[in-house]
Amino acid sequence: MAPLLEVLGRGHLVMEDDESGWSLVAAEAMDGARMRHAFRDYLEYFGDPSSDFDAAEAVYGELVGDCARHAPGALRIEFHWSDQVLVVVDRSDRLRSWPFSPDDPRSETTHHAYALISAFTGRIHVAREADGRTRASVVLPVMRRED
Prior knowledge:
Strand order of the largest sheet: 1-2-3-4-6-5
Strand content: 15-25%
Structural class: alpha+beta
């Protein structure tokens, strides 16, 4: 999917969803942030009603919102029911420095986001992909509906 990140023009995005997962590739992280409610709608459609959709939406919003604030540019978001993992891949290494140092002027909002995500999910894993992008992944508190 990485080549698609390079060809999308500003303001463009590609979203795909089915019973196995949801994905979004956006030319700008802010475009991904605007899709927060679409992601929640997807989770509610396929998810078990006992899932914590509020927490899942908040985690999406904080993680993608942090990308929009601190690592603007192309973004890839994936969610798979097989492991309930939300993955956000940005074009820079900014997310790898979470939580930021106390003297960073953006640290207050980032520490808040990191604390919120950790409280809802227990853990966030941040790593570098082979192409230099940053990959943040977190298990969401949702379960797939069994029909």
